Each structure stands twice: as C-alpha cells, then as structure tokens.
Amino acid sequence: MPPARPRFATLDETHDPARVSWVASANGHADFPIQNLPFGVFRRAGSNEAPRVGVAIGDAIVDVAACHAADCFAEESERVHRAARACAAPSLNTLMALGAEARIALRGALSRLLDESEPVHLRQTAQHALVPQAEAELFLPVQVGDYTDFYASVHHASNVGALFRPDQPLLPNYKWVPIGYHGRASSLVVSETPVRRPRGQRKGPNDAVPTVGPSRSLDYELELGAFVGTGNALGSTIAMPDAETHLWGVCLLNDWSARDIQAWEYQPLGPFLAKNFASTLGAWVVTMEALAPFRTALAPRAEGDPAPLPYLAAESDAAFGALDVTVEVWLRTAAMRAQGLPATRLSQGSARDLYWTFAQMLAHHASSGCNLRPGDLLGSGTISGPAPDSRGCLLELTRRASEPLTLPSGETRGFLEDGDELTLTAFAARDGAVRIGFGTCRGEVLAADA
After folding, report:
1. Cβ–Cβ under 8 Å, residues 224 and 427
2. Residue 285 gets which letter from DSSP?
3. For residue 446, what is the enclosing H or E element?
4. What pLDDT, on a 0 to 100 scale, did the predictor assign at position 200?
5. What CATH superfamily classification does 7-139 receive?
6. Closest CA to 7 of 348, 247, 338, 362
7. Which of 432, 402, 423 shows the shortest CA–CA distance to 414?
8. Are 371 and 228 spatial neighbours (Cβ–Cβ below 8 Å)?
9. What is the Cα–Cα distance from 375 to 140, expressed in whole angstroms?
10. Cis (ω within 30 of 0) for the bond into 268?
11. Which residues of 252-261 are buried (b: 16+ CB within 10 A; e: fewer)?
12. Which run of H or of E encompasses 338?
C-alpha cells in the first residue's frame, strides 16, 4: 500500500484547475492564479501607509486586513478572523505564530472570496481592497530572526568539491547529515534592492600575502528558502512526521557570494564575510498548501548511498517531501540594457534534485534541541542538477571563470560585473494542475564603496 500524502500535500477545492477568479488578470496568470495566493507585505508606493500583509492575485494584491474590516469574512470561522486580524501587522510573523491551521483556514477563505461564484455584493466590497501590483511597494515578507543556509544539492556539492578537491569532491559526512551554516539575518533584503559589491581580504594561489579590496569573484546562488511556522521550545526536538507542521511556505532566495573572499576565509570554520553582505529574498511566500499538487519524491539517490538515519526518515516524506519546482537564473548586463536586449537565461534546474527535503533540514536543525521560531529561514543551498545547464551559480557554470559564458551582447562573464542585473524565477507545473509561480527575486550589482 503506497504511503498516504501528508496533511499539507492533500488536494482540496482550492487546487481545482477549473476554478477561476472574478479578478480577471488572475485567470491564466503565469505566477499568481487563484490556485496560488502567496503572501507578502506591501503598501501603496509613495504613501505613508503602514506596511501590512497582502496576497497576490493576478496583477493585484488583496489587502487582507481591509477585507476583514469590510466584513468580507463575516460568514467565516473565528480562526479565519484571527488570522485576518494578524494581517494588519507589518510582517508575516504574527500570522505564522498562529500555526498551520490558521494559514490553511485563511487561504481557503480568500480562495472563496476571490472565486467568480462569490456573491456580487462581496465582490464589490473586496474590489476596494485590491491594489495594483504596479502601484505597490513591497517589503521583506518576514522579519527573520535566524537564517540557516543548507548545502542540500549533491550536484552542487560534487561540482564545487571537484574544483577544490578533485580526489574527494564529497566529504564523508555529506550523504549522512544535512550540512548547513548560520547566515546573517540582518543583511537579508527584498527583491529589487541593489546589492553593493563587498570588500574583503583575498589571497589568490599565486599571491605572497593577502590584500584587501573589492571582490573580483562576485557570484549568485540560486536557492529556495523555507520559513518556519510555530517552531519548538528550547531543548525539544521535532520528529520527522511532525516536521511538515512547522514548514509555513517557500520563497526565492539568492545567497550572493564573494568567491575570492570565501576561498581564503572558509577554512576551518566555513563561510563568513563572503556571505554576510547581502542575501536577497523574493517578496512572495508560496504556502505549503499551494504547493500540494507539486509534491513528489526527490530524485533517486545513487546506488550504494546510505539510507537516512531514523530521525531523518518518514515514509510520507520519502514519497512526497520534494517540491517539483523549476528554478531559473536570468542575467541582463548594463550593456544589454543599453542595447535593448532582454535578459538571457543562464540556467534552469529543479528542486527535485536536492539531496535532502526541507522537512529533513528542519528536523535535523531541531534535533540538537535548537529552538526554531516563527519566521526563521532555512535556505536550500544552491540548487543544481546533473546537466551542465542546470548549475545554479557561476562558480559551477564557468568552472571558477576558466570557461566564461558568452552573452547575446558579445560580452563574457566568469563572475558578475558592476551593473549586472541578476533575476531568479521559479514555477511549478504539471498535467492536471494550474501552473503557479514565485514572482521574481532581482538585484542589480553596484560598485563597491570607494
């Protein structure tokens, strides 16, 4: 008998591919149809309004607190009212702390409110709570207290390891334990925020002594980030069967990396200044419920690989713990913009190719008794696949700049240059389900401070 789908991978009426919205732009929208309804934080651009929680629907944003104030949820449960009131806050943390059932209830209520079958008077009322995305300013959706970045792609780990340790690309622990490091929450920025090239200490293989200056090897890392919901108390753990309860939603994540600084500083304790200058988050958090149609198993492990230890194993996670999400990287240089050329795609990969699921990352994180809190962020690490065009960073794509990419403008890139605009996108699509997306995660590289 096949394992049952986990609670948060169960399909219901909100996933119905026949469902359409009275918000016309949502129907056929590549990212934000009514089957998605991702959460973010916004206000009207140029206003002094307080930021508050909104939900993307087509080309618009639903002001959830405004809907609640206008009695759009009058017939809904007290759980929906409590969740909607939490959306007046300037981040998703208050809503996250209410737990998974509050999120599920609110998403269901919003799906009903935005359905074309909703009574005309409620549609007209809710219409006043719509803000065009083009007229909105977006903020970090979550106030992240702690950020842990994992290293969950075996292809990325193998490719990078082969560049530095040809005789032993993967260290012995990799296939036994989810590897991660503690990132810097204070330098997380929302999509569209420019990123300044960092300065730091570098020492090349032919340099007699290190020097200090702007990074010459600035890179991106194509990742997904998962947010923790209710978390656990200090000293307690989270069992694998319960891990899904603590995963709130997923967003795009670019963990910018200064490879020359990283190469000099990372031994023996790992990344530090090479990673802490900026990490960019997408503005929209796709809930675990919206991703339910796209849950699947991870790509098979290589023959002879060890099975996950018991605390990292659950039948439902083995069958449905992975996300069948396509991830892409797009680059547009200053010269390309000047010539009117569109962004060019550098790579396309899949989150199915990760070696560990987000549930395993979360369960491992808490296995020591570490307390995870609402809004904590778990990064997947660079998502790379087995094919050369599925590699999720320039370090891999160009083999440390030894094989530079040639762009449509005639320029070449080993690593990022000032003026480069880097965009991450992601979407989930399969037969029998409506495609949903994550929006964009974009940042332009600025020159280092003088």
Report:
1. no
2. B
3. strand 436-446
4. 96
5. Fumarylacetoacetase, N-terminal domain (2.30.30.230)
6. 247
7. 402
8. no
9. 11
10. yes
11. bbbbbbbbbb
12. helix 334-338
Q: Which residue has the tokens 């006043």?
A: 128
Comparing C-alpha atoms, which of 390, 334, 376 is closest to residue 222? 390
Residue 392 contacts residue 253 (beta carbons within 8 Å) = no
Residue length of the chain: 450
Please state, in angstroms and rounded to a whole number, the distance separating the CA atoms of residues 412 and 179: 33
DSSP 3-state of 237:
coil
d(CA 256, CA 266): 15
Question: Rounded to an integer, what distance in angstroms lies between the CA atom of residue 338 and that of residue 315?
Answer: 53
CA dist., res. 299 & res. 290, Å (int): 21
Provide Rg for the chain, Cα atoms.
22
User: What is the helix (H) or strand (E) element at residue 260, kind and residue range?
Assistant: helix 259-265
CB 61 within 8 A of CB 54: yes
Residue intervals of the chain classified under CATH 3.90.850.10 are 147-446
Read off the tokens for 434.
């409506």
CA–CA–CA angle 62, 63, 65 (5° rounding)? 135
Closest CA to 13 of 31, 40, 32, 34: 34
On whether the CB atoms of residues 156 and 396 are closer than 8 A, the answer is yes
SS3 94: helix
The residue whose two tokens read 């919205």 is: 21
Tokens read off for 58: 């087509």
Query: What's the CATH fold of domain 147-446?
Result: Fumarylacetoacetate hydrolase; domain 2 (3.90.850)
**Which amino acid type is present at position 233?**
A
**Average pLDDT per 10 consecutive residues for the chain, totaling 450 residues:** 71 96 98 98 97 98 97 95 98 97 97 95 93 98 98 95 89 95 96 98 92 97 98 97 96 98 90 95 98 96 96 95 98 98 98 98 98 98 97 97 97 98 98 98 95
Cite the active site residues. Answer: 156
Q: Is 118 exposed, middle or buried (0-12, 13-18, 19+ CB in 10 A)?
A: middle
Strands 421-428, 436-446: pairing kind: antiparallel
User: What residues form DSSP beta bridges with 285?
Assistant: 39
> According to the model, what pLDDT value does residue 3 have?
67
Under DSSP, is residue 272 helix (H, G, I), strand (E, B) or coil?
coil
* Helix segments in 31-114, DSSP class H: 64-69, 78-86, 93-97, 100-114
pTM exceeding the 0.85 threshold for the entire prediction: yes
